[in-house]
Design a protein that fits this description.
- The protein has 372 residues and is α+β, with helices and mostly antiparallel strands.
- Helices cover 44% and strands 17% of the residues.
- Helix 2 packs antiparallel against helix 4, helix 2 runs antiparallel to helix 5 and helix 3 runs antiparallel to helix 4.
Length: 372
Amino acid sequence: MLVESGRIRNTPSPLPPHFFVPLALLAWGGLVSLSGGCRPEPPSPAVGRLPALEALGTAPGNAIVAQGQLKPAAGILPITAPSGDRVEALQVDVGERVEAGAVLGRLASQKADELELAIAETKLREGRQQLAAEQEVARARLKVATIAREQAELQVAQAREQQRRAAAEGGRFALLQQRITIAQNKLQQLRTAAADPTAGQLVSESSLQEQQLTVDEAVEALQTARDETEAKIEAAQLAVDGAQQEIRTADLAITAAEAAAGLDSLEKQIELLQLQVDAVQLKSPIAGTVLSIDIHAGEPTTGMPIMRLASTREMVCLAEVHIAELPRLAIGAPATISSPAFDGTLRGRVQAISPLIGSPTLPDPNPKSAIS
């Protein structure tokens, strides 16, 4: 058994906090932590028979005897809730042992907060589903536009290749140009013959007109072939530009769908609602024992503690010693505790002395003592 600064560890059974017990501080200078306060008169050396004295074999005159109070080493933790709410149910009783994070009860506002959180989570799921669907459609459009651009680029390449072949030697343009040259030469021959007085009667005006028409048709055929080739290139290029624009539109649709979904704000809202739900949940922050229940189911919350918890695995003993005994006190001195609340005595050493001095806070166990 160890008593440190009045700390009692691994007691056989947890002692109730605020239990007032006679505390025997034995040997020269023995003392546990002072909670402050002294009695107006020093204690009489003629101390009666105490189990603590017998445990150390110390004579009454060599001991400092004082009252002490056992408290949880970590203090008593109040479980509170904001005022204006109502306790809907409690799930623990006084004296019940609870683990950290255990549910202690419910507040009336918790159901509404949980419902609001569930609605926000549903909106978030629906928003994510809608966003996924819109982005899937936009990605499909993007894929189609990408394929269309590739096809249009291929058409541009093919049209340019056709133009190159047509313009090359022996190509369509060259053949049409040769036809023009032949028609023009024949026309020139007819005009020369028509101007000759001896052969002029053999060439009629209609023959000249027909040959001129042949020349014009050959020129028109060449120009048409060139125009058709250019038109194919331009049309294919326009298809490329249109597909590229469709790709940009699909990309923007993906980004716009994500921005319009507002999922970031919904996620932040859910975080806030989760904090609100956690704030109204009555959960135990520590592993300990329920010491008291101050507000019961059905009663409104006022900001005061609903219940109080404490870990009684490690207790602190605070003793009140008269100021006249201070010269005899020393940290590290042996100390024992005895009380009708438990069998035997608890042993340890003094670890701290409080600098606070004031009026005694514990009741005098002697009913005949003077009331001060």
